[in-house]
Each structure stands twice: as structure tokens, then as C-alpha cells.
Backbone:
């Protein structure tokens, strides 16, 4: 199976279903709290129900997965949405 064949197996509908499942699980795991630690070291879940004010925060390198809404990160002169 070639790389393009693998991508053809996943259509937008299956991706939407997967993201919706992720949203539902985050809702369940966070119990409507802002942040929840997990049993997996280094993994935490964050949930906000409304936009927050901009904050100045120094992050360690990390992977961020946005399940709903958007996040804007500024690094020096660069902005990532």
C-alpha cells in the first residue's frame, strides 16, 4: 500500500467523527474543570468553555492538539494559529 492509498482511506467524515469522539472524551475526563492531570506522566487535558484573555506564558517544548475552537501562540515575531 502506498502513502497516497493510506490517505484515501481517511475521508473528512471519518476525521470529523474522530475529532468529535476526542471532544466528548475530553469533556468526560475533565469533569467540566479547566485542567485535569492524567495517569500518563506529562499528559494533561485543558478545557475552557469561553475565550480567555491573552496571557504571557513560557512553555517547555510540547505538542498541543486543539479539539475544538482555536489557539493563537506568538513566538517572537511569529504568530501561529
Residues:
Amino acid at each position: 500500500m502506498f502513502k497516497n492509498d493510506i490517505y484515501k482511506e481517511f475521508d473528512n467524515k471519518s476525521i470529523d467523527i474522530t475529532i468529535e469522539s476526542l471532544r466528548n472524551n475530553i469533556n468526560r475526563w475533565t469533569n467540566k474543570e479547566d485542567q485535569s492531570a492524567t495517569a500518563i506522566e506529562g499528559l494533561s487535558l485543558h478545557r475552557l468553555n469561553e475565550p480567555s484573555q491573552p496571557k504571557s506564558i513560557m512553555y517547555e517544548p510540547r505538542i498541543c492538539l486543539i479539539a475544538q475552537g482555536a489557539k493563537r501562540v506568538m513566538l517572537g515575531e511569529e504568530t501561529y494559529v
Summary: DSSP finds two helices and four strands in the chain. The first helix runs from residue 3 to 9.
